[in-house]
């Protein structure tokens, strides 16, 4: 079966200097934000992508939505190369694939009413104006905003953060997409609003059968919403598997550290030492071999000379660590 969307050996590098002498000598340093990554998302699948800031998560989301072009490799939607999308096909893709932003107050023009903000993607994707009002009301009802009609003429400043995040989600759904990228969708909300939006996202996943990628630092969100989880470190996928399996039996030292670093409700209890130390490595000049080797307490000689490959450690569960690839 052809996946709905996939990355095949994708790379994305960004220049970090505008020194013209370096440009002329072809030595301009590059940030290797994404480095030879393969990801497949099947129809109806909800996948989480987790990792530290700077690991390349948001760049993956932008590549999947054709908001940035890959340096190498291919991005395909329903078997078609995204690089070929132009004109009408690109406009149709913009309807098929939508983004839910992290900060709802930055995502909606403060001068727009909710009605105008919701109408914008309908106009951009060529939906007939006669359909706008029904589409907008139906989308707002999907996200369970109580007084749906009364909400339409309000401005962003007149609603709460939780309500506005529901509006942002409704705006993504109003064009009836097949694929959704949600980039830290609840990180700006307080605890009570976050719980409501998480419940909503899980119910929408089940009701609409959307294919979705949830980008997050929050392993609670991933556990609650996603069937499968990918762990990313310094431009590489280091673990991939069923969410419950990855969280309960993490196979990669980096995943183990992410899980152990999650705050616990009993702070007086002792915690195991993290299996890594230090901060995120240098994306301009990453370590040879395993990119975690300079932080990993389990590193040995092979880690410096050979890039680990993703190998199966349990059914459907893979990790890129030499400890599992004897």
Overview of the structural elements:
This protein is an alpha/beta fold and 326 residues long. The longest helix has 18 residues, at 191-208. The strands form 2 sheets. It has an 8-stranded mixed sheet with strand order 6-7-8-3-9-10-12-11, sandwiched between helices. Strands 2-1-4-5 form a 4-stranded antiparallel sheet, with helices on one face. A hairpin with a 2-residue loop joins strand 4 (72-77) and strand 5 (80-81). Helices cover 34% and strands 22% of the residues. The radius of gyration is 21 Å and the shape is globular.
Secondary-structure-derived class:
alpha/beta
Q: Categorize the overall geometry.
A: globular
Strand content: 15-25%
Distance between the termini: 32 Å
How is the largest sheet built, in terms of strand order? 6-7-8-3-9-10-12-11
Element-level helix/strand string = EHEEHEEHEHHHHHEHEHEEHHHEE
* Rg over C-alpha atoms, rounded to the nearest angstrom: 21 Å
Overall mean pLDDT stands at: 89
Catalogue the unreliable spans: none
Major beta-sheet overview: 8 strands, mixed
Instruction: Name the helicity range.
Output: 25-40%
The number of distinct helices, counting runs of at least 4 residues, comes to 13
Work out the number of β strands: 12
